[in-house]
Amino acid sequence: MSNRSARYDYTTINNLKHYITMKRAERVAESEGKPFLIRDIEDDLANYCQVSRETIQMIKRMVNQPSLALGIKMAEYFGVPVEELFKLVPKCPVCSGKDEVGHDGVKSKCLSCNGKGYVA
Ligand SMILES: [Zn+2]
């Protein structure tokens, strides 16, 4: 979790990895043996949302936060309410969501949130 914005003490996490895995399983079941990869689903989702697969991956890894419109569009793709896909959580109060803390100029993983940057 590397949301560097110090503006808010809250952020969102997501279940995107889970929903991509589920969608892939669904496609594999429908396709009578044609293999579907995780990246195929990511490509399909990216096309549906008119963004790059890299954008999807950055959101999946929670490096980037989607815009509200993109978040809603992603939920639409999976046919779930947006709050199923995204959850609002408080940022870690120790590292303020930066997922690392500095001691004498040396940065190390925040032990309070285990480097996640949020409390859930
Ligand atoms: Zn922390």
Written account of the structure:
This protein has five helices and four strands. α1 packs across α2 and α2 packs across α3 (53-60). β3 and β4 (106-109) form a beta hairpin. Helices cover 42% and strands 15% of the residues. The protein has a two-stranded antiparallel ribbon. Strands 3-4 form a two-stranded antiparallel ribbon. It has a domain at 13-87: 434 Repressor (Amino-terminal Domain). The chain is an alpha+beta fold. Zinc ion (ZN) binds at residues 92, 94-95, 110, 112-113, 117.
Write a brief structural summary:
The protein has helices at residues 16-30, 38-49, 53-60, 68-78, 82-85; strands at 10-14, 86-90, 100-103, 106-109. By secondary structure, it is α+β, with helices and mostly antiparallel strands. The strands form 2 sheets. A two-stranded antiparallel sheet has the order 1-2. A two-stranded antiparallel sheet has the order 3-4.
